[in-house]
UniProtKB/TrEMBL annotation:
Cellular location(s): Cytoplasm
One GO biological process term: tRNA threonylcarbamoyladenosine modification
PROSITE patterns: GLYCOPROTEASE
Domain Gcp-like, first and last residues per copy: 27-312
Alphabetic keyword roster: Acyltransferase, Cytoplasm, Iron, Metal-binding, Transferase, tRNA processing
Role of this protein: Required for the formation of a threonylcarbamoyl group on adenosine at position 37 (t(6)A37) in tRNAs that read codons beginning with adenine. Is involved in the transfer of the threonylcarbamoyl moiety of threonylcarbamoyl-AMP (TC-AMP) to the N6 group of A37, together with TsaE and TsaB. TsaD likely plays a direct catalytic role in this reaction.
Classification of source organism: Bacteria, Pseudomonadati, Pseudomonadota, Alphaproteobacteria, Acetobacterales
This protein's GO CC annotations: cytoplasm
Cofactor detail note: Binds 1 Fe(2+) ion per subunit.
Names of the cofactor(s): Fe(2+)
E.C. number(s) listed in UniProt: 2.3.1.234
Protein name per Swiss-Prot or TrEMBL: tRNA N6-adenosine threonylcarbamoyltransferase
Length: 336
């Protein structure tokens, strides 16, 4: 494995992030810079703006993170950069910057799959009170860009059990929030509004609930929200609460099926921004409890996009002798 600190870089969506980890996984320094303000006026992430913002921010952010760790580039033993899936402009920025550092200092380079980084986060030493979960465990990735159930069976051994047929669940939250007149990204605003509403007030569909497998679908739910808003009979708070209850019920049902598909799972690990949602967390905790396995939720800032998870995936890969050639190109689509 690496004999010194490893630099991790994340730039696949709208967070610019850098982190330095000791070879044993200890976090030496980290920083995340959100571009939310730049994209909010457009109501979503604009790829070109994201790429340019990563380009402007990443080198300085990396220098600050290294300085905070009391290190220089020459102290590093490896570089890991997210190389997909994600927005290609940002991926190119992060991968090229990482390769530049690797070339200048003769370091191994790891092209990290963003989904693998989310999947391995729970194994970061000291992150979970209960300790790192043993393989296999169920990863429920619920963010603005991803929505899938993954069997994590070992390093490099992932099986996608189900995924969304249309929108990611965070996207569904954002679209429903927009219909309710809330600012982007709408998930947290919708949760706050839902707290004042009655979850039984508006009958909304629960797509795929009870169906075999663990795929997801949210477009029908979004259409139903649009209809409820247009009819004007229900209050926004009641619509928000009912929407959130539908999503939580669907996620719980899908997770329950996923656990049936992975009967020796040692736990459910959640990742992605939607893991912040209280109703979703409660529903998933219930499912885990019924199945007799722990629900493992890393602290929120390691559920959302960050560079600590990228550096950690890099360390795991370097320990397994899995560095990548500098000719490795970023991939906007890169299934696990
Ligand atoms: O993982 P993340 O920060 O970024 C990526 O999508 O990669 O997830 C962001 C998504 C957004 O769609 C946001 O609305 C949603 O997570 N989200 C929430 C909550 N906080 C963030 N959705 C529901 N309830 C929340 N409290
Ligand atoms: Zn992510």
């Amino acid at each position: 494995g690496p004999r010194g600190p490893v630099l991790g870089l994340e730039s696949s969506c709208d967070e610019t992030a850098a982190a330095v980890l000791a070879p044993d996984g200890r976090i030496l320094a980290e920083a995340v810079l959100s571009q939310e303000r730049e994209h909010a006026v457009f109501g979503g992430v604009v790829p070109e703006i994201a790429a340019r913002a990563h380009l402007a921010a990443l080198p300085g952010l990396t220098e600050r993170v290294l300085a905070r760790a009391g290190l220089g580039f020459w102290d590093l033993a490896g570089v890991a950069a997210t190389s997909g899936p994600g927005l290609i402009g940002g991926l190119i920025v992060g991968a090229c910057f990482g390769k530049g550092v690797a070339i200048a200092h003769g370091l191994p380079f790891v092209a990290v799959n963003h989904l693998e980084a989310h999947a391995l986060t729970a194994r970061l030493p000291g992150l979970l009170e209960s300790g790192a979960p043993a393989f296999p465990y169920l990863l429920l990735l619920v963010s603005g860009g991803h929505c899938q159930c993954v069997a994590v069976e070992g390093l490099g051994r992932y099986r996608r059990l189900g995924s969304t047929l249309d929108d990611a669940v965070g996207e569904a939250f954002d679209k429903a929030a927009k219909l309710l007149g809330l600012p982007w990204p709408g998930g947290p605003h919708l949760e706050r509004l839902a707290a004042q509403g009655d979850a039984r007030a508006v009958p909304l569909p629960r797509p795929l609930l009870g169906r075999p497998g663990c795929d997801f679908s949210f477009s029908g739910l979004k259409t139903a929200v649009a209809r409820a808003v247009a009819q004007g009979a229900a209050s926004p708070a009641d619509i928000a609460a009912s929407f959130q209850a539908s999503v939580a019920a669907v996620l719980a049902d899908r997770a329950r099926h996923a656990l049936e598909m992975l009967p020796d799972a040692t736990g459910i690990v959640v990742a992605g921004g939607v893991a912040a949602n209280g109703a979703v967390r409660a529903a998933l905790t219930g499912v885990a409890g019924m199945a007799g396995v722990p629900m493992l939720a890393p602290p929120l800032r390691y559920c959302t996009d960050n560079a600590v998870m990228v550096a950690w995936a890099g360390i795991e890969r370097l320990r397994a002798g899995l560095a990548d050639p500098l000719g490795h190109n970023p991939r906007p689509r890169w299934p696990l």
